[in-house]
What we know:
Chain A is about 0% helix and about 55% strand. Chain A is an all-beta fold. Chain A has a single domain, classed as Immunoglobulin-like. Chain B contains no helices and eleven strands. Chain B is globular, with a radius of gyration of 13 Å. At the A-B interface, strand 4, strand 5, strand 9 and strand 10 of A face strand 5 and strand 10 of B.
Amino acid sequence: DQQVKQNSPSLSVQEGRISILNCDYTNSMFDYFLWYKKYPAEGPTFLISISSIKDKNEDGRFTVFLNKSAKHLSLHIVPSQPGDSAVYFCAASDDNDMRFGAGTRLTVKP
Amino acid sequence: NAGVTQTPKFQVLKTGQSMTLQCAQDMNHEYMSWYRQDPGMGLRLIHYSVGAGITDQGEVPNGYNVSRSTTEDFPLRLLSAAPSQTSVYFCASSYRAHYGYTFGSGTRLTVV
Lengths: 110, 112
């Protein structure tokens, strides 16, 4: 069973606009949530994380929002840039292991 | 500063052959794990280790063995390769499961 779900396989946005990537999870034991970015032929790279005791975390153009009651998190990228085009993975951890979603391919058009 | 090094980058196996995917990290990370990436499935956890001498199973452990004799190395063994094991394999390490992982560049394995 997939405990972390990214229901949108792809997303296309215009340069300069906001990108919103969504993620849902089912395991209430998860208490740490992360986003990774992956370019073709490379390993994923860590982008931003949030602890379950927070509902928002910002790092430059990237903001992650967590809604624990809905078991939902989202990644906002503002403004989006063509270099942001990649596959984004949502991940969740219970301090034992880390589970990943299927990924969302973001395309930012110039 | 190598980070996480995976070898080989590419491998073709025949059904029934065995092989070991190597993973080494130089960051003194206690936590290491192996994932496989398949289209539409994302990254699925195969095995993980919280320190030398300790390993545990993830979501899809069948057909794979691991050992952790040192902090630096975490090899993944395929005992009898099957076409269903055709995938891209990633090794990752971290100080602990909660922290952002450092991933290797992956091994693309094809079983024919």
